[in-house]
Amino acid sequence: MRIFEDFYVYPWMSTQENNANTIFIDGQVPTLIDPGHTHLFRYVVEGMARDGVSIDRVKLIICTHGHPDHLEAAEQFDKGVVRAIGKKECDYLEEEGKELFLLTGSRSPRKAFGLLLKEGLLDLGDKQFAVIETPGHSPGGLCLYWPEKALLVSGDTVFYMGVGRTDLPGGDMDLLGQSLRRLSSLDVEFLIPGHGDMVKGRQSISKNFEVLMSEFFA
Ligand SMILES: [Zn+2]
């Protein structure tokens, strides 16, 4: 579904199975964020086709973090498509991050990440994003902030009325609280989490942060 020009969200709606919301950003560097599970990826391809966008446009895949429900389908892409993930998350995938793939019966990543992201600017040519490192749900998770639209892609750090779980390998509740505090200081009009509903409007988003901070990190 097209949110505005060049920006598409494919929310995962089913409660029968877990999968991430996927985002496609068109433009000079067509970018797919969190492709999700391999066996569910056809829903993204179909959704994009309905919007008149071919999956073949994708040049860059960014995974907000290294959990199978966000990353597994990144393996499907071949030559000419760069896979990106946080630098710390790449290290994590070599170590305890592997456990989740075994536990969920997912295929762990075999192809190399061509781009390791760190805190700072992500230049997509006609669009500039800020990479914000947000450890807590996983050690090297990141969020993407688009200042021009006041839009935050928040991965599994913050959801509508919820935060990412910290009981998985590499989770850390204190770090998640610090990450949440940082994100809450941004000017955000569109919050697009890794799972569940989007949140629109500055007031609703501030309220969401406020509730979560007081509920989990008071
Ligand atoms: Zn996750």
Mind sketching the topology for me?
Blueprint: E1 2-4, E2 7-10, E3 22-25, E4 31-33, H1 41-50, E5 60-62, H2 68-71, E6 82-86, H3 87-94, H4 98-104, E7 115-117, E8 120-123, E9 128-133, E10 142-146, E11 151-155, E12 158-159, E13 162-163, H5 173-184, E14 190-193, E15 199-200, H6 202-216
Parallel strand pairs: 4-5, 5-6, 6-7, 11-14
Antiparallel strand pairs: 1-2, 2-3, 3-4, 8-9, 9-10, 10-11, 12-13, 14-15
Bound molecules: zinc ion (ZN).
Zinc ion is lined by residues 65, 67, 137, 156.
Distance between the termini: 36 Å
Number of helices: 6
* Count of separate structural domains: 1
Structural class: alpha/beta
Rounded to an integer in angstroms, the radius of gyration calculated over CA atoms is 16 Å
Compressed to H and E, one letter per element, the order equals EEEEHEHEHHEEEEEEEHEEH
Can you count the beta strands? 15
CATH superfamily: Ribonuclease Z/Hydroxyacylglutathione hydrolase-like
Mind summarizing the main beta sheet?
A: 7 strands, mixed
CATH topology: Metallo-beta-lactamase, Chain A
